[in-house]
Design a protein that fits this description.
Layout (H helix, E strand, L loop, with lengths): L1 H40 L3 E6 L2 E6 H20 L6
Antiparallel strand pairs: 1-2
Helix pairs in contact: 1-2
Length: 84
């Protein structure tokens, strides 16, 4: 009887892990879909200034570049080495 309870407990843990994976994939798909919708709505050109010049690019490229830079900075801050 105890073996059945242990099997049920482990099966529930695997089931919860599968649900979490599906939810995570759905959230990622929703974010990608939102980015595509924003990109399709923002196709006008915008001037982007740099320290060494400037250029023009579609707004969606500027938004995606800013998002990627933000994610990269967040990842670097989260995974910085700990001081002893």
């Amino acid at each position: 009887m105890d073996d059945l309870k242990e099997v049920d407990h482990h099966a529930a843990a695997v089931h919860r892990r599968d649900i979490a994976r599906v939810v995570r994939l759905l959230i990622i798909a929703a974010i990608v879909a939102a980015l595509v919708v924003v990109a399709m709505d923002n196709r006008d050109d915008v001037r982007i200034g740099y320290a060494a010049g400037e250029t023009e690019a579609p707004v969606w490229i500027a938004l995606v570049a800013a998002t990627v830079c933000g994610v990269l900075i967040g990842w670097l801050l989260r995974h910085r080495p700990r001081q002893r």
